[in-house]
């Protein structure tokens, strides 16, 4: 019997001027999710059940960018995506383009458990959800007043919304501002809303699992798919480690960031902390991102090259930490 460990995140990239009240609200949510996961682990639930349970809670709360509270497309609608992966046999499920499924991570779990496939998207995923009898809601349920306001800002700036990097100088004149130093897929952008959510767990049996869920980018093109549902990029789990990523999706996709953590552990012999530090430093090129990870030995680690990352972790020996910066 080994030792369990859990980590959660609410997105990499935090506005340096984020009000204290919002910081504390985020910490309370992360703490609540950790408590849910800890209770489940103490009840001997397997890792795959725990990550689904925790991410469902994050999807239900509108604070972060997943489920209710998801970022809006250029058309003012929500298109959500999620993935889940069970380490022991590397089973996985993923979904994209969801508009009515209340908890995308649970539909991803059903793709893994109930179909011969690994990934369903858009109309096919919605049809599968109806056949499985999962809870469906109107798209309006996911839309919050805050995100409607953020979309308005993004459209005025004619950009994807990068809320924690928007230039504070030279932005007068409705977006005819300085050329953005931030690029995505080689093209400049000025604003971006991160706050993808994720959870990684290793249980007492040493089984690792990971899950990630998001609404994507604010003002994104309809049909855009990010890293979160892509196995090996935003989510990965094997018999050695589980990883969930967050941040600049296109950079995470190019670097297959989640799988890279496992790869350098397998092929370079790095431990978990060394592996996380290595991929953040050497695999993101100029991209900005973060990740959480657990190993089969009960270790937990996080890494990011952004201003901050909403995160929390706990281990069986009583260690627990929640942080932003």
From TrEMBL:
Signal peptide: none annotated. It comes from the Eukaryota. Transmembrane segments: none annotated. Pfam families: Asparaginase_2. Heterotetramer of two alpha and two beta chains arranged as a dimer of alpha/beta heterodimers. This is Isoaspartyl peptidase/L-asparaginase 2. It comes from Hibiscus sabdariffa (roselle).
